[in-house]
Amino acid sequence: MYSASTDKQAPPPDAGKFIRLGIVVIIGIVIFAMVGNQAVILSMNFTEFGDQFTKPLYYTLVSTIILAAIALVRINIFGRSSIFWYVIRTGIGFIGSGGQQPLSNNISSFKEYRLSSLQFVIWQITKILLFGAFFANIMFGFAAVSFIDGNYLGVENLPKLFSLPFVTPGNNPNYAAENVVPMIPALVILIPPLLAAIGLRLVLYVGIHRIINVITSFLQDSNDGKPRYLNYVSTIEGIIGIGIIWAGFNLFFTDQIDYNTRYIIGGTLFIGFALVAFSVVDRIRARVLTHMFKRDVYIRILSIIVIAIIVAGVVSVNNSIADAKKIEFLGPYTAQQIGVNRYLGELNDIQENTHNVKLTSVSANNIKNYMNQHSDVLDVIRVWDWEAAFAKLKPEIGLIPYVDFEDNDILRFNNTLYWTASMKPILPTSVSLENRWYNEHLVYTHVPNGFLTLEATDGQIIDSGEFFKQREIYYGEGGLFEQTWSGYPNSRDSQNSAELGGVSYSGIGGLDVSPPLSWIFEPNFLLSFPAESVHIMRYKDVHDRMETLYPYFLYDLFGNELDSLPVTDGTNSYWLVPLIIGFDTRDVPWSVGNPYLRLVGYALVDTYNGDIQLLKTGDDFFSEMFASQYSEQFQPMPSWLEEQIRYPVELFNWKTEMYNVYHVDDVETFIQANEFYEIPRGLDTYYIEAKPPGFAQTEFLGLLSLELRGSQGRNLAGYMVVENDLTNLGNLQFYEVPLNSTTKLIGPTAVSEALDRDPEFAQLKTLLRNPRIGDNILYRVGDHDVYFIPVYTAGAGGVVAQLGTIAAVGAAFNGEYFVGLGETQEKAFESYLKKVSGVAPTITTADDNYVELVRSDRIDIIKRVFEENGITVSEPTSIQIPLSFNEGELLFFTESDRENTEEFLNEFIDDFVQPRSDRVFMWQEENNLNIGTIFVKDGISEIHYVSIEVGN
Question: pTM for the whole thing?
Answer without folding.
Answer: 0.81
